[in-house]
Amino acid sequence: MRVLPWVYLALAYAFVFLPVVVLVAFSFQDGRLPVPPFKGVTLDWYAKVLTDDDLMAALVNSLLVAVVSSAVALVLGFLAAHALARVRLPGSVLMRGVLIAPMTVSYLIIALGLLTVFNQLGIRPSLWATGIGHVVINLPLCFAISYAAMGDHQKSAERAARDLGASEGQVLLHVSAPMLAAPLAAAFFLSVTFSWDEFIIAFLLTRFDVTLPVEIWSMLKSGLSPATNAVGSLVFLVSVTLVILLEILVFRRAK
């Protein structure tokens, strides 16, 4: 009976990672189509991807949107969490529910709503519009992680800092934020990962300067190619690298 948990675990990992293994394997296909039989190993598709100006521009756009929107979402989420955790406000439970509500809404609904609002305001589809959309979807995550990490020991340290003459801004910058460094870093890295892979909002809110998922979608319209597998493998590599850095730099240090 002890074998059954290991069998279950192996099947679960195979179910999750088998598509990724196939994707990566056929990105090295020495042929025009990423389908069996495997004809040999080549790095030509990676060379083609890395020398494609449109793909590299989309890669830079994705990194820019992911980092900036995640930073904005983290700051806003942390400030909202600190206010609702430290100050008793009427309707604070309702406020928390409203802040977390976007996590339960489909990205398609959020994207359509933002597109309608931007059209009314005269804001054209762009990377800035996409960044605002990513702030909307990542702010609830940053708020939830920050709020859950705030405890009484931070409150005592903040009170001591105020008694010693620190202003509210100094308390936030030099006491509250450093004590929550690990949760805040986790929220930031998770937001970057979600923004990096997000497609629907980026597709509806960009026009000429597109992000990498949108560029990959435009490549798929012309048919399957090992080049698309190579791009997918690079995206997967970046996502895995972020998760590993999060584990090494944040969670292990916190432990």
From TrEMBL:
One of its GO terms (cellular component) is plasma membrane. GO terms for biological process: transmembrane transport. Residues 59-246 form the ABC transmembrane type-1 domain. It holds the Pfam family BPD_transp_1. It is found in: Cell membrane. CDD domains: TM_PBP2. The chain crosses the membrane at residues 7-28, 55-81, 93-115, 127-150, 171-196, 230-251. Gene3D superfamilies: MetI-like. Keywords: Cell membrane, Membrane, Transmembrane, Transmembrane helix, Transport. It is a multi-pass membrane protein. PANTHER family: PUTRESCINE TRANSPORT SYSTEM PERMEASE PROTEIN POTI (PTHR43848:SF2). Belongs to the binding-protein-dependent transport system permease family. CysTW subfamily. This is ABC transporter permease. It comes from Tabrizicola piscis.
